[in-house]
Write a structure and sequence with these properties.
The chain is α/β, with parallel strands linked by helices and 353 residues long. It has helices at residues 16-24, 32-37, 55-67, 85-92, 109-117, 136-148, 165-177, 243-253, 314-327, 333-336, 338-352; strands at 2-6, 27-31, 46-50, 72-76, 101-104, 118-119, 124-128, 152-156, 183-190, 193-200, 213-217, 223-225, 228-230, 295-297, 302-304. The strands form 4 sheets. The protein has a 5-stranded parallel beta sheet, sandwiched between helices. Bound molecules: iron/sulfur cluster.
Length: 353
């Protein structure tokens, strides 16, 4: 039996199953850098350490020892199924009969990095920028598709001293499609620990990134709060409808609402001129999503929309009005249909922001 063991990004992040698999193994095979990382766990075992680039050789060795009846652990950093040894072994073992394999999953770099950065992941994709085995044209096609589809993107193997072009090209695609202020998390891991930096697409410095770095690029909804990178899931926050908002929506539903800028209002422009005042009171309040400018006034636990100009853009109003009548027939629907309203908001943020 061969157990392909994911040892995570660092020794401390190994799972109990991984530890158990190592304990049971008689032969441990892996890249030298990884076996050294866990050498205190390998006492009394035969350890075969190989160099980088000898993945197929390691897989063949594991199959060979296993066929002789040994319990083999084949080490993979992170998770064996994410650019790890599971794929190599399965590819190689096709030519042998009776090889038994079990994959022991591990913490992959994207989970590890996301945990350090805050909570940046929602729907996401992981793309390796190594063009050693993959044509650059394929990498670029995937980066472009993921960027257009508004996936959060985690880049593995982004840049080495000699291999700088894939990262440059990926950055260019991102900058052509996403806004410069899109948050970007950079996690650099070494034997001494991990260093993080949260910057923006526009502020990202290429030379900050190397082969030991994982880069996570946020999407339309990702924001930075208190030094943490967050992509909200859109949960409904408890609230009650303010009496002034109630009054406003009674008029709005009776067809007496204001359309466009309300120059007659003594507070106009409460944000910046020109502004569309159709939704003087936001139907999504409190959205709890700072990506359009709202924020918590922490000590008061109040959601402030002071800096959200998105709700006052013409294209936003147009997008919301297209579907609002199906969700809002009476003022109570502001609360009763909150989930659907927040879904409409997401749709319009994506289309207009
Ligand atoms: S005005 Fe903006 S920040 Fe406030 S609830 Fe509406 S969408 Fe959210």
């Amino acid at each position: 039996m061969i157990k392909i063991v994911g040892i995570g990004p660092r020794r401390d992040d190994m799972t109990l199953r991984a530890l158990q698999a190592l304990e049971e193994a008689e032969i441990v095979i892996g890249y030298g850098g990884y076996t050294r990382q866990i050498d205190d766990l390998l006492e009394g075992k035969e350890v075969i350490s190989k160099g980088m680039g000898q993945e197929v050789n390691r897989a063949e060795l594991a199959i060979d020892y296993s066929s002789k009846g040994y319990k083999v652990a084949l080490i993979s950093s992170g998770d064996p199924g994410v650019y790890g040894m599971a794929n190599v072994l399965h590819q190689v073992m096709g030519k042998y009969a009776g090889v038994e394999v079990e994959v022991i999953p591990g913490v992959t770099a994207v989970n590890y990095s996301a945990a350090l950065l805050g909570a940046p992941l929602h729907d996401f994709t992981v793309i390796s920028l190594s063009d050693i085995l993959t044509p650059l044209s394929e990498i670029k096609r995937k980066v472009r598709a993921a960027t257009k589809a508004d996936f959060i993107i985690a880049f593995y193997n982004p840049r080495s001293k000699r291999r700088t072009k894939p990262f440059q090209e990926a950055l260019q695609i991102l900058k052509d499609i996403r806004k410069g202020e899109t948050p970007v998390g950079i996690v650099k891991t070494s034997d001494e620990g991990s260093k993080i930096n949260i910057t923006s697409l526009g502020g990202l410095k290429e030379d900050e990134v190397d082969m030991n770095t994982t880069v996570i690029v946020g999407n339309t909804f990702t924001y930075v709060d208190n030094g943490k990178m967050v992509t909200p899931r859109g949960y409904v926050l408890p609230h009650s409808t303010h009496p002034l908002a109630w009054e406003f929506y009674e008029k709005y539903l009776a067809g007496e609402g204001n359309k466009g800028p309300n120059m007659a209002c003594e507070y106009y422009p409460c944000h910046s001129h020109p502004q569309n005042c159709t939704f003087c009171y936001c139907p999504f309040y409190p959205c709890g999503d700072p990506s359009t400018g709202g924020r918590w006034i922490k000590e008061k636990k109040v959601w402030s929309c002071e800096d959200c100009t998105w709700i006052h853009q013409d294209d936003t109003v147009q997008c919301i009005e297209g579907k609002l009548s199906q969700l809002l027939e009476k003022v109570e629907d502001l609360q009763d249909n909150k989930k659907k309203l927040l879904k409409l908001r997401r749709e319009c943020v994506y289309l207009t922001k």
